């Protein structure tokens, strides 16, 4: 039995309206990301929402429903805005003639067996300072085999775990302790590592904060991530005026989250990534193979303040982790 044209149009309208209502509810949910945990999780999928809203617009155009097209267009613009307008300032350009330091950050993935691939990635990028996360299981020994890094934060303090800083340049390391009742107080692990690095004789030191806030996979960890950012921001703000600072690591936060903008503002930082829509650094693996990168989210980054210039962060070679390394050449003026 064939369906009449009227019924076909009615069914088409039902589908279009249902899709647009769903897109509206999900998109509007991001407005509450500052206060509601699931809403903040939606900010990881800002590009996905934009693509989905484009699909909704195409569906409305195919259905030839004027009001639906107008509504779909509004949803597209709503989801495009965070991807087109940055909420944080960009880092100043690199200063000509100033000492240049290359900083690389990489989440190793504790279960990643490809130690040789990581070494090849480091050899290709040739960083002066290497910040790593998930430095556990067999990774400490793999880092021991890297050439040309005589200074290492974990060699200076036995409490350090999971986050490490390796440097070709002399450095002094301080751990940012959570304090009584603070973040991770029961395990007494630091919330960040502060490395003061002597870039060149007579040049001002460069302070690198290596961070790895918790992933907000539960409500508890979402609150813990916010508390970690608040503590780190307090320390960065407390640096003497003009201190050259770089904050590097796996932030477990996309640039479209209110927590990202709040931290950047509280710490007085500027972004080195290609804002407002940087490429993904957190990728998904299936049976050891990397899925299309657009499915992931940009969570690994470097941010700067205090006269640190850069020509922008770049993504390094993949090495089997579910994160891609990021690096940038910075100048200290």
From TrEMBL:
One of its GO terms (molecular function) is endonuclease activity. The keyword Hydrolase applies. It comes from the Bacteria. Residues 104-323 form the Endonuclease/exonuclease/phosphatase domain. This is Endonuclease/exonuclease/phosphatase family protein. InterPro entries: Endo/exonu/phosph_ase_sf (IPR036691), Endo/exonuclease/phosphatase (IPR005135). Gene3D superfamilies: Endonuclease/exonuclease/phosphatase. Keywords: Endonuclease, Exonuclease, Hydrolase, Membrane, Nuclease, Transmembrane, Transmembrane helix. SUPFAM superfamilies: DNase I-like. The chain crosses the membrane at residues 12-37, 43-62, 67-84. The keyword Mitochondrion does not apply.
């Amino acid at each position: 039995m064939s369906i009449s044209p009227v019924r076909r149009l009615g069914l088409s309208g039902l589908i279009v309206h249902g899709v647009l209502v769903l897109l509206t509810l999900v998109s509007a949910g991001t407005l509450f990301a500052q206060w509601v945990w699931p809403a903040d999780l939606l900010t990881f999928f800002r590009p996905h929402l934009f693509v989905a809203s484009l699909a909704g617009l195409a569906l409305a155009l195919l259905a030839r429903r004027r009001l639906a097209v107008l509504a779909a267009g509004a949803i597209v613009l709503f989801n495009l805005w965070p991807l087109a307008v940055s909420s944080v300032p960009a880092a100043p350009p690199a200063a000509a003639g100033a000492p240049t330091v290359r900083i690389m950050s990489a989440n190793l993935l504790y279960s990643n067996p490809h130690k040789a691939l990581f070494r090849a990635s480091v050899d290709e990028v040739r960083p002066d300072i290497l910040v790593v996360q998930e430095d556990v299981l067999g990774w400490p020994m793999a880092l021991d085999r890297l050439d040309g890094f005589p200074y290492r934060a974990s060699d200076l303090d036995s409490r350090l775990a999971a986050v490490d800083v390796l440097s070709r340049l002399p450095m002094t390391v301080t751990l940012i302790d959570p304090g009584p009742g603070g973040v991770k107080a029961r395990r007494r692990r630091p919330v960040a590592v502060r490395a003061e690095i002597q870039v060149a004789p007579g040049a001002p030191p460069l302070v690198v904060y290596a961070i790895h806030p918790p992933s907000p996979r539960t409500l508890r960890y979402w609150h813990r991530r916010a508390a970690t950012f608040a503590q780190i921001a307090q320390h960065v703000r407390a640096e003497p005026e003009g201190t050259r600072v770089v904050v590097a690591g796996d932030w477990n936060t996309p640039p479209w989250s209110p927590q990202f903008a709040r931290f950047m503002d509280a710490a007085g930082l500027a972004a080195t990534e290609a804002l407002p829509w940087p490429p993904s650094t957190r990728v998904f693996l299936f049976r050891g193979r990397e899925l299309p990168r657009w499915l992931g989210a940009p969570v690994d980054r470097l941010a700067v303040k205090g006269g640190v210039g850069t020509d922008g962060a770049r993504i390094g070679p993949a090495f089997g982790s579910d994160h891609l390394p990021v690096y940038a050449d910075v100048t200290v003026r």
